Automatic annotation (TrEMBL):
<keyword id="KW-0560">Oxidoreductase</keyword>
<dbReference type="InterPro" id="IPR036291">
    <property type="entry name" value="NAD(P)-bd_dom_sf"/>
</dbReference>
<dbReference type="Pfam" id="PF00106">
    <property type="entry name" value="adh_short"/>
</dbReference>
<feature type="domain" description="Ketoreductase">
    <location>
        <begin position="8"/>
        <end position="210"/>
    </location>
</feature>
<dbReference type="GO" id="GO:0016020">
    <property type="term" value="C:membrane"/>
</dbReference>
<protein>
    <submittedName>
        <fullName>SDR family NAD(P)-dependent oxidoreductase</fullName>
    </submittedName>
</protein>
<dbReference type="GO" id="GO:0016616">
    <property type="term" value="F:oxidoreductase activity, acting on the CH-OH group of donors, NAD or NADP as acceptor"/>
</dbReference>
<comment type="similarity">
    <text>Belongs to the short-chain dehydrogenases/reductases (SDR) family.</text>
</comment>
<dbReference type="InterPro" id="IPR057326">
    <property type="entry name" value="KR_dom"/>
</dbReference>
<dbReference type="InterPro" id="IPR002347">
    <property type="entry name" value="SDR_fam"/>
</dbReference>
């Protein structure tokens, strides 16, 4: 048995591309009103228009979640518009690879700022609203889904600080789950393997050549929709069932 998302409100960070955009489309298909958060406002506006044309409800919210004030304002804008918040999908992320030795620490700062601090900012701002929805909405349950990575389960050379951020996301997710699950706020993590998105394209050309392009050329990777399906599965469970962790891999990736 699954529950419908009709009447619920979902905020998805990193909704301007890849997994976040696919998740917004999928949750809207399930009936959720979706708030699309990222920095590229033009992308958000065109996705919102596409979702609305298909009969859904979408709100584009341009924000840089590394800035706590902007993250808080984004959550507030969603609650002001829709009256409450049922689902937070912490998806925004960056992956900048390469050896630790001789690395540019500015790349580390960027990953920590988005993957860790950004996730904390939106989570902190959303928690009171999610707990309220878990308490007094018709479904009496609310959800946080954090998009981690296989890199939150396994460490590899060249993934050092990305590993650090995603292992951190896994640990934080489980700690928060234990804190709030009895209040019917479900908190779960999804750990994708390789997905065809823009993620690797932010790396220097030589890193792409050595570390990411060969993998993507040789592997039948996941589509963003495969992860969107995972998010939809998690949040459409009946109230008594919480999916705490979901590891989704390309069949081709060992
Ligand atoms: P994309 O690069 O397509 O998407 C990343 C999203 O994050 C974009 O929408 C981007 O929007 C947003 N983002 C980046 N910085 C900020 C910021 N400061 N404030 C707000 N939004 C921001 O990659 P994916 O879809 O692949 O990535 C989504 C998540 O999935 C990430 O957390 C990633 O680590 C994870 N993941 C991806 C895998 C893959 O193989 N692709 C595998 C495992 C996990 P904008 O630039 O407009 O701000």
């Amino acid at each position: 048995m699954t529950t419908t998302l009709t009447g619920t409100i979902a905020l998805i960070t990193g909704a301007s591309s890849g997994i976040g955009a696919a998740t917004a489309r999928r949750l809207a298909e399930h009936g959720a009103s979706v708030a699309l958060v990222a920095r590229r406002g033009d992308r958000l506006e065109s996705l919102a228009a596409e979702i609305e044309q298909a009969g859904g409800t979408a709100l584009a919210v341009e924000a840089d979640i590394t800035d706590r004030d902007q993250a808080e304002a984004a959550v507030q804008q969603v609650v002001d518009r829709f009256g409450r918040l049922d689902t937070l999908v912490n998806n925004a992320g960056v992956m900048l690879l390469g050896p630790v030795v001789g690395a540019d620490p500015a790349e580390w700062d960027r990953m920590i700022a988005v993957n860790v601090r950004g996730l904390l900012h939106t989570t902190h701002a959303a928690l009171p609203h999610l707990l309220k929805a878990a308490d007094d909405s018709p479904r009496q349950v609310a959800d946080i889904v954090n998009i981690s990575s296989i890199a939150g389960r396994v460490a590899w050379g060249g993934y050092g600080v990305y590993n650090l951020t995603k292992f951190g996301v896994n640990g934080f997710t489980e700690s928060l789950r234990q804190e709030v699950t009895r209040r019917h706020l479900r908190v779960g993590v999804i750990e994708p393997g390789g997905v065809a998105t823009e993620l690797a394209s932010h790396n220097a050309p030589e890193i792409q050549e050595q570390m990411t392009t060969p993998f993507y050329e040789q592997t039948e990777v996941l589509a963003p929709e495969d992860i969107a399906d995972g998010v939809a599965y998690m949040i459409t469970r009946p109230r008594h069932a919480s999916v705490a962790e979901m590891w989704i891999m390309p069949t081709d990736q060992a």
